[in-house]
Amino acid sequence: MGRLSKFWIAFVALGLITAGMHSSARAEETVKVGVLHSLSGTMAISEVSLRDAVLMAVEEINSNGGVLGRKIEPVVVDPASDWDLFAEKSKELLLEHEVASVFGCWTSVSRKSVLPVFEENSGLLFYPVQYEGEECSRNIIYTGATPNQQLIPAAQYLMSEEGGGYKKFYLLGTDYVFPRTANKILRAYLLDQGVPEENIMEEYTPFHHQDYQTIVQKIKSFAADGTAAVLSTINGDSNVPFYKEFANQGLTSAMCPIMAFSVAEDELRAMDTEFLVGHLAAWNYFQSVTTKENRDFVKSFKQYCEANGLPGGLMRVTDDPILWAYTGVYLWKGAVEKAGSFDVEKVRPALYGLTFDSPGGQVMMDERNHHLHKPVYIGEIKKNGQFKIVYESDGLVAPDPWDDITSADKDCDHVNYMGTYTLE
Fold first, then answer.
1. Dihedral (CA of 9, 12, 18, 24) sign
2. Does residue 277 sit within a domain?
3. 201 and 98 fall within a common domain
4. Which of 59, 291, 308, 317 is 20 to 30 A from 49 via CA?
């Protein structure tokens, strides 16, 4: 081999090594996070906006220098409202893409599906939606409401003089984990408050159920004396035909109010709100919260959707799950910077007691149990698809993942007891 050939081989080899070094350097300039929300199927009506909120937070953080000097690289996947696919996609994010954290899921069945994947692979999931409690995994950060931050205050309000003094309750939900467990808790609470068993009805429909004629007929009969309310845990696009049938049969909020736990401003965009006026929802945030910070957030979200060509553009709205999806990204950022590391085992403890000035007001991660301290609101639907706030808690409500009636012997502490433990 001639000297020129040897020189050329050495030059090429050096070039390849240099290119590899540059490639590695570029890779180290970013940190990957996963976005695990249904962009198709029955839950897309709710989950697409959570993806948008996460990506907006990422864009904001990146424009301000990123996290620990790295830009965030979001990896978006579509589990398509398929609970088994949620598990597959979460495994893909953790093992193939090696993301530092994941922001995702809506339904409890999707969360239950991915839970073992995160626990077995030391992942960290920020879960942004209200849920039924009875869970406190070391690998999930629950930024949505616990039962005592949504279900119980809603029932208390309806039973109060201010809320109408209702004495009968129709518990109607989609047939999966959250509604079943939520209604177990609600039933136990109502019975504990002296509501007779015969004054509590309970019924479930499958995902994507469309025909509510018979059920609404039963509700109409149950509510004939004017003392009944519906506690609704219907999820996804089934809410559209349910509310429509409710109005078609002449029922109004004055005759029988619906208190919803999974309907917010974003779902109302797809519904004819003219016949929904006066019905209620219990959340920890509404777009109508009157602070400058919230007005700025609402404006920013609309502008983000418009600038990125997202459906609805400037007509988009914010709501409770959108806020907590957005907040989750900033909580992760704060914990990473506090820990000085992207390592899950260092980030997790850095979250305990962490505060964040969210657009809906300051919130705080519990010091022990992976849930947020947050306010509680009850809103009344207005004709424009927004909510008039009719109840607000006195300050932040501490999270209680284990209900005081149905699980009085359990609590959660990840600092002293490694998670859920039995009270002595």
1. negative
2. yes
3. no
4. 291
Give yes or no: residues 159 and 246 share one domain: yes
Q: At what angle do helices 292-307 and 44-63 cross, to 10 degrees?
A: 100
* pLDDT score at 222: 98
Strands (E), 196-284: 200-205, 228-233, 258-260, 280-283
Last residue of a domain, one of 359, 374, 389: 374
Domain for residue 414, yes or no?
Answer: no
Same domain for 153 and 136? no
The residues near 11 (Cβ < 8 Å, ≥ 6 apart) are none
Is 416 domain-assigned? no
pLDDT of residue 408: 94
Whole-model pTM? 0.90
The answer on 153 and 62 residing in a single domain is no
| Other Cβ atoms within 10 Å of 414 Cβ, number | 20
Instruction: Tell me the C-alpha to C-alpha distance, in Å, between residue 231 and each of 67, 190, 288.
Output: 42, 12, 23
**284 Cβ partners below 8 Å, 6+ apart?**
130, 145, 149, 150, 320, 324, 360, 374, 375, 376, 377
Smallest Cα–Cα separation from 149: which of 283, 56, 248? 283
pLDDT at 236: 87
* Count of domains forming the chain: 2
DSSP state of 96: I
Task: Tell me, yes or no, whether 160 and 278 share the same domain.
Answer: yes
Closest CA to 281 of 239, 316, 315: 239
Give bridge partners of residue 419 from the DSSP assignment. Answer: 413
Q: How many residues does the chain have?
A: 424
Domain that holds residue 266: 148-286
Which residue, chain included where needed, has tokens 């018979």?
Answer: 214
Lookup result for tokens 């193939």 = 96
φ/ψ of residue 295, rounded to 5: -60, -40
Beta bridge partners of residue 142, listed in sequence order: 127, 371
- What's phi and psi for 298, nearest 5 deg? -60, -45
**What's the CATH number where 162 sits?**
3.40.50.2300
Q: Do 127 and 142 contact (CB within 8 A), yes or no?
A: yes
Q: Which two tokens stand for residue 396?
A: 């932040």
